[in-house]
Amino acid sequence: MVVPANLTPQYRAAESRYKAARSAAERRAALEEMLATIPKHKGTEKMQADLKRRLARARQEEETRSARHGYTVKVEPEGAAQVVILGPPNAGKSSLLAAFTRAEPAVGEYPFTTTRPQPGMMPYEDVQVQLVDLPPITREHLDSWMPNVVAAADAAILAIDPTSSEVPDDVEAVRERLAGVRVQLVGALPEDGDPRDTYLPTLAVITKLDRARREDLEVLGELYGGEFPLVSVSVATRAGFEAFKVAVWRRLQLLRVYAKPPGKPADRTAPFVLPEGSTVLDLAELVHRELAEKLAFARLWGGKLDGQRVSRDFELRDRDVVELHG
Predict the structure, then answer these.
(1) Which of these, 84, 27, 56, lies nearest to 196 by C-alpha position?
(2) Residue 254 has pLDDT above 70, yes or no
(3) Residue 197 carries which DSSP code?
(4) pLDDT-derived band of residue 79, with 50, 70 and 90 as boundaries?
(5) Same domain (yes/no): 113, 243
(6) Helices (H), strands (E): how many in the chain?
(7) How many domains does the chain have?
(8) Residue 190 domain flag
C-alpha cells in the first residue's frame, strides 16, 4: 500500500522556486523551505531523506563558492548516485575502491594512506555508481572538510576489518565522530528524526573475508547484521563481488526507467534514475518541465503491464518502460 504524500501548497511553491533557482543561495533557501513545509509522515520518509541530502549538497556548494580562506573540498557527483566509503584506518577502504572501479588509490598496510577524496565509477548493469574513498576516521582524527562531503552523499559504505584487534571499538568511533557532527549512519531512515541531522543510508561491508576467522564473522554479523544491511567481500579472492554490487544498488533505493518515444522502440542504453516511490509525473519532470506540465497519461511496459494506459500518479518500478503522452 502506498501512503499518499499530500504535499501542501507551501511545499509546492517552494519546489517551484527550487526548480527556477539560478544560484546556490536560492537553491539552498528553497530546499530549506521544502524541508520545513513537507508533511512529516511515513509517506514522505524517502522524500525527506532526499531533501536532506540535496540540502547538504546545496550548503556545501554555497560554502565552497563563498570560502575565501582555508581548505575546502567538494566531490562532484557523477553517475546514478554517490556513495562514500567510510571506516577506521586499514579497514580495506582503498582496496574496495580499486577492486570495483578503475581508480588507482594508494593502498598500504599503514594508517592514513588516503588523505584526500578518491572517486571512482563502479558499473552496475546499465548504470554507473560513484564510489568515493575518504580518509579514515578515529576518535582523535576527523578532517574538517569531511562532514560536508559525507552529508552530501546518497549513501555510505561502512568498512569493517574482521582481522583488526580494535574491532568493533574502531568502527564505533567512526559512527560516534560522525554523529557528533550531526551525520547519522543508519540502516533505516527514522520515522521522526531530528531535522538538524543528516541520516545517511549505510551498508556495512566486512572486508578481508579470506583472512577472517569464522567466529569473528559470526560476532560481527550479530553486532551489525540486525542494524545494517551486511555483506562480506574478499578483494584477494573476489568472493562476494556480485553480492556487493547488488547490495550497494539496493541500499540506494533507486529505480531505472526507460523512456519510449511514441511509435519508436525504448531507449535501453541510458535509463532515467529516480528514487523508489517515484511516479510517472516525477519521470516527466525529469525528462522536461514542459512535458510534465502537459502530461495527460502514459503507457507502461513492466511487470504484468504490457502497454496499458496509466495515470500521472502511477508508481514506477525498476526497469519499467514508459511512453509519455501530453
Answers:
(1) 56
(2) yes
(3) S
(4) very high
(5) yes
(6) 10, 12
(7) 3
(8) yes
Last residue of a domain, one of 17, 40, 66: 66
The amino acid sitting at 137 is: I
109-145: buried (b, 16+ CB within 10 Å) or exposed (e) per residue? eeeebbeebbbbbbebeebebbbbbbbbbbeeebbeb
154 & 280 share domain: no
Q: Which three cell numbers mark 19?
A: 526548480
Q: What is the pLDDT of residues 121-154, one digit of tens each?
A: 999 999 999 999 999 999 988 988 899 999 999 9
Residues 106, 215 within the same domain = yes
Range of the domain at 13: 9-66
Asked if 111 and 37 sit in the same domain, the reply is: no
Tell me what the pLDDT averaged over the chain comes to: 88
pTM of this prediction? 0.77
CATH of the domain at 158: 3.40.50.300
State the CB neighbour count (10 A cutoff) for residue 318.
15
Alpha carbons 235 and 141: distance in angstroms, whole number:
27
- CA 41 to chain centroid, in Å, comes to 21
Cα(4)–Cα(105) distance, integer angstroms: 45
Is 73 domain-assigned? no
What sign for the dihedral angle of Cα 268, 269, 274, 275? positive
Q: Clarify whether residues 156 and 51 are in a common domain.
A: no
Backbone phi and psi for residue 141, each to the nearest 5 degrees, phi listed first: -140, 125
Nearby residues of 45 by Cβ (< 8 Å), 6 or more positions away: 189, 191
- Of 219, 252, 285, at which residue does a domain stop? 252
Q: Cis (ω within 30 of 0) for the bond into 168?
A: yes
Residues 6+ apart with CB under 8 A from 126: 256, 268, 269, 271
